[in-house]
Amino acid sequence: MNAVMPTYGHPTVSFEKGEGAYLFDTEGRRYLDFAAGIAVNSLGHSHPHLVAALKDQAERLWHVSNLYNIPDQVRLAERLCGMSFADAVFFCNSGTEAMEGSVKAARRYHAANGSPEKWRSITLESSFHGRTLAMLSASKNPKHLDGFGDPADGFDIVPVHNMNALRDAITPETAAIVVEPIQGEGGLRPLEDAYLKELRAAADEFGLLLVFDEVQTGFGRTGRLFAHEWSGVTPDIMGCAKGIAGGFPCGAILATQAVADTMTAGTHGSTFGGNPLAMAVANATLDVLTGDGFLDTVLQSSAKLVAGLKDLAARYDTVLEDVRGKGLMLGMIVKAPHTNAALGEAAREQGLLTVVAGENVLRMLPPLVIGETEIAEALAAMDKACASLASADND
Ligand SMILES: *Cc1c(COP(=O)(O)O)cnc(C)c1O
């Protein structure tokens, strides 16, 4: 036991150094990091461009608060708007803040347009939007809510890929539909393009706002800057965080002009949000993500990794059911009685780090900068991990 609150158990592995896709623990052991701090270290560890940006900013100015203009914040907002559906950006520090702020913005939009009764959001089963009281209530995962009282009102939950249920849930009080284009924590489940299109159509028909949670899927993770680009469907509001600043804490709410116009002075705020350090690193991250051919390389890496994992799924058909996901946001569906946790542990023993998700899925969320060597090494380690589980089948 130690003095850290036991919300994460008490993990035993400690890292002291990271380089590219590799982490080194305090015993000197090297790991291939296909967890990337849960889809955060998108450019790997110690990326020289990010290190330089952080060092340079650290020597000049850390924090001033939003009582003052922060030029790098304006610059990042303008760049993001130039690359997306959005016309304005609000900066915060985490994914759950980005999503809670997105829901606030959706409510505010209707109130400011004469419909204060429109304040409820329709959300999806097996979603994850973070751990504040409101965002827990948006997902209503019983495990996450246990012991925290009645869920906050204002969220109506419906099953994924069921348009009848969703349309039935729309009432005169509905303000927004809130979804992750690919459900991450819930089990790496991509929402079908046709479904996203129907969500957009329903939102337009009933005057609702469509809110995308791209906290995990955004910033190149799926091989496009934002995952919704695959479907051609654009939201009115989008929450981002995780990979946005390559490992420096940062979140953002992107919104259309119509929404931004209603978020007038004093309606929302953050002490740390958009501070100079976060903005310097986020701008530097965006330099790399938007570099010539960068996202094409992500797609090429994805194709190789998926082919290798599909091959493993075929060879170890008692361990793996299938592989799903997009870009470098991939999930291996583990076949019961085997568990994602056991496969993840077996992979860790082989020096490969992964992350579990719901529905017995083991996620691979490698840094976007991986190449042939890292992919081959990961597949070899996963091959051995699958073999160690499969050998138990014959006992
Ligand atoms: C991680 C995650 C969040 C919460 O982000 P935090 O930074 O942990 O608050 C919200 N939504 C999605 C889709 C996520 O993956």
As laid out across the biggest beta sheet, the strand order is: 4-12-11-10-7-5-6
- Number of strand elements: 17
Structural class by helix and strand composition: alpha/beta
The largest pleated sheet is described as: 7 strands, mixed
| Helical run tally | 13
Terminus-to-terminus distance = 36 Å
Instruction: Look up the CATH topology of the largest domain.
Output: Aspartate Aminotransferase, domain 2
Number of domains: 2
Estimate percent helicity.
25-40%
Order of helices and strands: EEEHHHEHEHHEHEEEHEEEHHHEEHEEEH
Low-confidence stretches: none
Strand portion: 15-25%
Instruction: Just name the CATH architecture of the largest domain.
Output: 3-Layer(aba) Sandwich
Computed Rg:
21 Å
**Average pLDDT reading:** 97
| Ligands, deduplicated | pyridoxal-5'-phosphate
- Estimate the global geometry from the Cα principal axes: globular
Describe the structure in your own words.
This protein has 13 helices and 17 strands. α11 runs parallel beside α13 (372-393). The chain folds into 2 domains: 6-33 and 293-393, Aspartate Aminotransferase, domain 1, CATH 3.90.1150; 49-289, 3-Layer(aba) Sandwich (Aspartate Aminotransferase, domain 2). A hairpin with a 5-residue loop joins β8 and β9 (189-190). Helix content is 38%, strand content 18%. With 395 residues, the protein is an alpha/beta fold. The strands form 4 sheets. A 7-stranded mixed beta sheet has the order 4-12-11-10-7-5-6, with helices on both faces. Strands 1-2-3-15 form a 4-stranded mixed beta sheet.
